[in-house]
Design goal:
Blueprint lengths: L10 H24 L2 H13 L8 H25 L5 H24 L7
Length: 118
Amino acid sequence: MTQPITEPQSNDSQDQHKHLALLVYVLQALGFVTGGLTSIAGLMINYFKRSAVRDTWLDSHFRWQLNTFWYGLLWTLLAWLFWLVLLGWVASGIVTLWIIYRIVKGALYLHDDKPIIF
């Protein structure tokens, strides 16, 4: 299967989008202390700028961040349901570790200028 041919981004544009991706990782991490508000801001950045990074190595980071938000929200809601059967502390701990893992892994790959392979 061939990759779509796209015009390469200029270094300035690519650096700008890389900084945006890093900002979203930071906003997601800050979501733990802001009750998720900064995560929502990161989500908005992802959706607003997603088309600008399409078909570049940064596209995988934007997808990764979107998946981290939406699946994190889903697992968090399920963990809250587990509180009804007194296992919520286990589920919440697992979800928290999973979100932290995804933020750290994504930020490290971004730092190394590597796409994330799902």
